[in-house]
Design brief:
Bound molecules: the ligand Nc1nc2c(c(=O)[nH]1)N[C@H]1C(S)=C(S)[C@@H](COP(=O)(O)O)O[C@H]1N2, molybdenum atom
Helix content: 10-25%
Strand order of the largest sheet: 4-3-12-7-8
Radius of gyration: 25 Å
Structural class: alpha+beta
Strand content: 25-35%
Number of strands: 23
Number of helices: 8
Shape: globular
Length: 428
């Protein structure tokens, strides 16, 4: 520790240019080896491609950036925030592969007037209320506890609404309020064990560090089951927009519960009706009762490629792929239809399939050049099946034009492939 090989040897730090040279030499060597093994791709003298111009400014090496040719892959907004939301940026699901959303593309929903700029040295998490020993933790103290790293999706209650009107053509702008990350932190159960929860406690109330004290109630049983006080996302500290330095992750639950900039857990014996939660619990069920404190998201899936706004270059093989998830646990199967739901066939699931995580599905398809309607249907480990648009409307007591009022919408999304290869939202 402390010694620095470059200053010991007295040689100057290697420059970007030198690093580039070294790397090109290495690749030439590897290329030659591959040519030997593969036979067919042995480079012929005079035909090797000219070396590419040096990559970008040195500044990019401190923290890597995507290729400038991938600069179109960004979060986007419909430009019309929901009533109590100041910022709504959606994940470009159509441009992503696998199940992990890069942190810089994680969707963003804030009910704040700006992102709090929190110094982790000064940040504290207070756990108090119906406990034997109220405690306050620094970030350093939290990191001394046994940690977990788990892959979980977040999905905003307001995702996938409305399905009609302008800006409803791409999977990003309709369904992009969901993302999936590896979250690292301490289980709430570990912290509560430290504090000693009292017999009569039944809820926890979590509070965020913004000026408006964003507050959410969560059943104690869920808190003890699998809720995480997370400090890292995809291997690095959680980013400021996602809750730096601390946020709650409530697996399988509507993301509104995942309190960012977490600074307080209050152990209580009844839920609060805090301002942010009451505003988001206003839907009514078909029997006319209010749908208070729905947490769990239903089984859901969407085809991300091909999807709205894309174009197939021509008939022939075309893999259909997308994401499935469920608040009910693991995805058990995904079925894909290429005829608007008349017939379905089972898709392949990318392994491992994880609880409360996005699950990638793939389906081999040969497009014959005729009009086709592509859609997917998720079944979760409890056997619950993703509803059609019409079924979802019934469950949520919403007319199809009225989805804007319906949270937790998980109806099946159809995409129409026209004969010219263009893909559009197939909802009328
Ligand atoms: N402190 C705080 N936590 C919050 C919010 C907020 O405004 N403040 N928004 C919630 C909502 S509605 C959603 S959908 C998720 C979004 O998380 P993300 O912005 O990291 O995607 O955070 C939730 N947690
Ligand atoms: Mo949300």
């Amino acid at each position: 520790m402390g010694s620095h090989p470059r200053s010991d040897s007295g040689s100057p730090p290697r420059t970007l240019a030198r690093w580039g040279e070294g790397r090109r030499r290495f690749l030439t060597g590897a290329g030659a080896l591959a040519g030997f093994v593969m036979g067919a791709i042995r480079p012929v003298r005079g035909q090797t491609p000219a070396p590419a111009a040096p990559y970008e400014p040195q500044g990019f090496l401190a923290y890597g950036q995507p290729s400038k040719f991938a600069s179109h892959i960004v979060r986007r907004t419909t430009g019309r925030p929901t009533a109590i939301t100041d910022t709504a940026l959606m994940t470009p699901l159509q441009d992503l592969d696998g199940i992990i959303t890069p942190s810089g593309l994680h969707f963003l929903m804030d009910h704040t007037n700006g992102i709090p700029d929190i110094d982790p040295q000064k940040h504290r998490l207070m756990v108090h209320g119906m406990v034997d020993r109220p405690l306050t933790f620094t970030m350093e103290e939290l990191k001394r506890f046994p940690s977990v790293s788990r892959i979980h999706f977040l999905e905003c209650n307001a995702n996938s609404r409305p399905l009609r009107g302008p800006n409803r053509e791409s999977v990003q702008l309709i369904h992009g309020r969901t993302s999936c990350s590896e979250w690292t932190g301490v289980l709430v159960s570990v912290l509560l064990n430290e504090c000693g929860v009292q017999q009569k406690a039944s809820w926890i109330v979590a509070e965020g560090g913004e000026s408006n004290k964003y507050t959410m109630s969560i059943p104690l049983a869920k808190g003890l089951e699998d809720v995480i006080v997370a400090y890292a996302q995809n291997g690095e500290p959680i980013r400021p927009h996602q809750g730096y330095p601390l946020r709650l992750i409530v697996p399988g639950s509507e993301a509104i519960r995942a309190v960012k900039w977490l600074n307080r857990i209050h152990v209580v014996d009844k839920p609060y009706m805090a301002w942010h939660e009451s505003g988001n619990n206003a839907d009514t069920r078909p029997d006319g009762k209010g749908m208070w404190f729905r947490f769990e998201l239903g089984p859901k899936s969407v085809i991300t490629r091909p999807s709205g706004g894309q174009r197939l270059p021509g008939p022939g093989f075309c893999e259909i792929t997308g994401l499935a998830w469920s608040g009910g646990g693991m995805v058990r199967r995904v079925d894909v239809s290429t005829d608007g739901g008349r017939t379905y066939q089972e898709a392949e699931l990318q392994q491992p399939v994880l609880r409360h995580a996005h699950t990638r599905f793939r389906f081999p398809w040969r497009w014959n050049g005729e009009e086709a309607v592509l859609q997917s249907r998720c079944t979760d480990e409890r056997g619950e099946v993703q509803p059609t648009i019409e079924e979802a409307a019934k469950i949520l007591n919403a007319t199809i034009d009225y989805f804007y009022q319906a949270d937790h919408f998980n109806g099946i999304q159809p995409w129409r492939v026209a004969r010219d290869g263009s893909v559009t939202n197939a909802l009328p």
